[in-house]
Amino acid sequence: MSSETGGEKRGAPTAAAAVKEVLRPWRPFEITWLAVFCLIALILTWWSKDTWLGFTAFITGVVCVVLTAKGSIWSFWWGYVNILTYAGVAYANGLYGEMGLNLLFFLPSTIVGLFMWRRNMKTAGHLVMRRLARSWHLALAVMCLIATVALGWGLSRIAGQNTPYIDALTDVLSIAATLLMVWRFREQWACWLTLDVFTVLMWSLRWAAGSPEGALMTTMWSAYLINAVYGWYNWSRGAEEETAACIRTARRGENSRRFFAADGNR
Question: Between the CA of residue 159 and those of 39, 113, 114, 170, 264, what are the distances in Å?
C-alpha cells in the first residue's frame, strides 16, 4: 500500500515507525502517568504471579488508549494486539460477553476504523476531530439503556457467566464508543468514561473472587479511566479547532465570492 494523504506517505507499518510514533511529542503528564501505571503493572504481575498474557494486554491497552487520546493512527496497531490478548484474559475469567465483544466486534471495527482515520488525517499526521450534534445525545443514551437490558438478560442465561448486567453495560458502551471513535466524534470519551467506571467495578469483583488477573485488570481499567478524562479534553480542543478552521474557510469563500461578484459588476 503506497498512497499519500496530506503530504505524508503511508506504507505498511514497521516496528521502528511504531516505536517512533509512541515517542513522538509526548506531554509530561502523558509520560508520567504511563510510566507510573507500567511500573505498577510490573509489580502486580510479579506479586500476584499473573500471566504474561494479562501483562501484555495491560501494556498494549494503555499505549493504545493514550495514542487514541492523541489522535494517532498508530493506536490501531497497538489495539490489535490488545484485543487478542484481552479476549484471552476475559475467557479465562468467565466474561464471555467481553471476549465475544473483542473478537467479533472490536477486531473488525478497528480494521474499518484504521482506513477511515487514514482518509481523514491532515498534514503532520493530525486527525480531523468532530462533535456529535446535541440532538443525538439523548437518543444515544436511550439506545444504550435498551440494549444493556436486553443483552444482560441474554447473558444471565449462560452457565458460568459472571456479573451479566455489568458485562452487558460495558459491552454496549464499548460498541457505542468504538463507533463514535471510528467516525471521529469527541463524544466517544463520555462513553469510555462511563464504561471505565463500571469495568473497574467488574474487575474489582473478579479480584475479590480470587481471579489471578483481577488486580492487573483493575489497574489497567483505572488507567483507562484517567485517560478518558484526558481524551475528552484533548478531543474537545481538537474539535473546536476544526470548527474554527471550517468557519474561517467558509468566510474566505464568502469573501472571494463577493469580490468576484463586485468585480464582474464593474
Answer: 37, 34, 36, 19, 77
